[in-house]
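Students often ask why we bother encoding 3D structure as a string. The short answer is that it lets us treat folding as translation between two languages. Here is a chain of 157 residues written in the first language.
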Amino acid sequence: MAVRKTKAARLWMSAGRVETHAPVLAGRVKKKVSTKEKSFSKFVFESIERGRKALLEDEGFSPTGAPDLVGAWAWFHREIYGIEPVELHSEWPAAVAAAKRVLVEYLHGDFDIALDFLRWNAARARSSKGESRMKWRFVFNGSAVTDWKVSERKRAG
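And here it is in the second language, the structure alphabet:
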């Protein structure tokens, strides 16, 4: 008994067409992947700008809290690596929550100390020579605050 080959099976076996028809044969349709880079929402972009102003100590500027701290981190990321931190597109709320926890619980709500902490993280990222990226999950956590405090104590003598 001969096995009857469907049109899809013949396409599957024909050379050069496997990749274009494989999703159809598997019963799923591939989503079209956009090559455009997503842009930040207006709120995120404004937070990054407020973070930059805080870092540059712009007169008349008063930071509003955790969103500005994440904005400052994103600005450092762009300065160090030359690209926007893409993870903020989907992880903005989590990053702000983590920054708020660090700011309130570990740094006693002092935004100036929080900026010193971020500057220390950025200096550490610059000196790592690309070994690891300055990710928000590694910056806004208690372990990083402890590392910073140990470093500050050693520096003070």
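Translate back mentally: The chain has two domains: 1-33, 42-156. Keep this in mind for the problem set.
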